[in-house]
Amino acid sequence: MCGIVAYTGANSALPVLISGLKRLEYRGYDSAGVSLLDDDGIVTVKTAGKVSDLEKELADLSEDIRLTSATCGIAHTRWATHGTPCTANAHPHSGCKGRFAIVHNGIIENYLALRQALEDQGHHFRSDTDSEVVAHLLEQAAGLDPNADSAALVKTILPKLQGSYALAILDRDSAGRVFCVCHDSPLVVAADGSMAASDLPALICAGVNEVVYLPDDQLVGLGRPLTGFTIKRIDTDLTEAEHSGFPDFMLKEIYEQPAVAKYAMRNDFSNLDLNTRDIRRVYVVACGTSYHAGLIGRDLIEKWAQLPVDARVASEFRYGNPYMDEHTLVIALTQSGETADTLEAAKLARSRGAKVLALTNVLGSRITQVADIVVNIQASLEIAVAATKSYVAQVIVLTKLALYLACARGLLTPAHLTNIEAQMALLPDQIQSLLDQRQTIEQVACQCLNAHTVLYIGRGVGATTCLEGALKLKEISYVHAEAFYAGEIKHGPIALIDPIGVTDKVKATPVIAVACAQATYDKMISNIEEVQARGAKVIAIASEGDEHIAELTPHVIYIPHTSECLMPVLAAIPMQLIARYIAVEHGQNVDQPRNLAKSVTVE
Ligand code: M6R
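^ thats the input. predicted complex w/ 5-amino-5-deoxy-1-O-phosphono-D-mannitol below
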């Protein structure tokens, strides 16, 4: 959540900061700001809106020579947690005297008490944010110890902060330096000490190729090379952070899925220290789309490896009292590796003696520091807020894990394994064939345009696919969407179907039904007939060659034949394309949907 960029060096800081912010905008985009430091002090420009709004603001001030001549600065793009998205709440924040400017990611949980104490001492606050207390605390510390240097002042205030933070700090009295520190919120620093950012893309675009993932509570001052830290080389390709001819990142990432599927299925669990014979219980913990992938993993592990498996939303798991011991395997599933609830769930699991296996897309992310074992889902950089390729990668990796556990426990015949692996090998081409049908899929998706609500129904892995399809639609198009187990609709949800559809097919409630070749196919057909009888307009996702379904509804999207366990991978593709198409047709920004951010690093 929120993006931080900091720079100091020989060049003008502003262009580096702005292009870094643009690379981080997926982390938050409701306000943005920059502070530059030169011999005359700190100059700050900030605004509500996106980085492009900040650029307009800066263009209006282009006569201010300091903006272009300063070679040291900090910048921020925000996802509001405290206070509305407005200029006053945008970062950077300063205290009363303007000696310090700070940008902050995370949440200062005790900020109310700190603020009250500071106000009692005469400090005047200009924003509603939790972050502003940091600037005032620094000023207070400087007042108490006028001889202390900047690093000492930062160290003085850190113990007062409760919660999570990544901070980049300018001090008027320390020209050319930016002080960076983090606690439960990521910061990556260029090994040469020239830059820091809350995520790699901002550094990659500035040509940084050696970084330090800053450990918690270690203060560094930019302006000098880092020593005493583990340096990592970055091999991420900058083109991953480019649109590459696609109108948006979401579409680009959807089209990357054939390659992503190929990489994901190369994962091999046999080299990992999983102690399979020792495992007696498994939890999958995750949020959002990752949780949906986790539900599929749950079903497959239970079915093949015959272990009790529970998939839990991480925000519930961490505050529950889940039974865990040393025979428990907890699979923490997180694309970003930064999701606060998933991290806390993983920490809880470790504290209870469970083994934590993290499946993540970001090596070096915080989950990799918490887990016992880390597996890279290899989906490559995902920028669009709506997760697409990471979901497909997660489902494939979980399927491989389920197969591995089943084999290790002697529960899968070689013939069964060979059969599933052969089907899996077909997935990249099958995904491509679905992408090639994009126009047809979008024509079918037209049936959902201008609907007040879109309902999704399915059974088994089809129902889980529906949960993900509905999430995709609501998060980027803002159309209400709800997924139901098809067997449950007559226990309540069928009441949502408006009878107007019986007479007016255009206004009928759209119901997207996953009716692929599955053990429960016949039951699914009955469910489709049930909703149609109440006036629903059914859009079916069915297996190629299913002629019966075409007799029920003219709106059918066919997916290639595959085994039931792999169907969620293929059915996800039309779900993603439908959601994106509706969002685009409704004029929404699909990469930066309102109120959302890519990494949810706060509770
Ligand atoms: O990075 P994570 O996989 O931990 O993120 C979890 C969710 O925040 C994420 O999947 C979210 O639901 C996406 N916006 C869904 O598209």
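The chain has a mean pLDDT of 93.
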